[in-house]
Specification:
There is one protein chain. The chain has one domain: Roll (Ubiquitin-like (UB roll)). It is 16% helix and 23% strand. A hairpin with a 5-residue loop joins β1 and β2. The chain is globular and about 30 Å long. The chain starts with a strand and ends with a strand. The mean pLDDT is 97. Bound molecules: FE2/S2 (inorganic) cluster. FE2/S2 (inorganic) cluster (FES) binds next to loops.
Length: 104
């Protein structure tokens, strides 16, 4: 387990114990203020959309083309958008801070 910092849609920051090796989405969907993750991680629903803090952006593996394509179709898409089902929570990401994106 390691620290994951999550800012909910009301702007409140929470400190969460996240399991190493799981996708970030798998931790977020267990939270009341987390993500819906309707497709279960198949990179097809975008309901796991988060914003990654700029200081962490460069430490995440780059998004694959299907993730980039889906993100680009979202109205709340930003430069630091990621689909949390495509980001594995590795030991290097301990302390990662993400913000839950608004509903589409
Ligand atoms: S859970 Fe559906 S795209 Fe991530």
């Amino acid at each position: 387990m390691a620290l994951l910092r999550v800012v909910d849609r009301d702007g409140v920051e929470h400190e969460v114990d996240a399991k190493i090796g799981l996708k970030v989405m798998e931790t977020l969907r267990e939270l009341d203020y987390g993500v819906a993750a309707i497709c279960g991680g198949m990179c097809s629903c975008a309901t796991c959309h988060v914003y990654v803090d700029p200081e962490w952006q460069g430490r995440l593996p780059a998004a694959m083309s299907d993730e980039r394509e889906l993100l680009s179709e979202l109205s709340h898409h930003q430069g630091n958008s990621r689909l949390s089902c495509q980001v594995e929570f590795t030991p290097e990401l301990a302390g990662l801070r993400v913000t839950i994106a608004p509903d589409e």
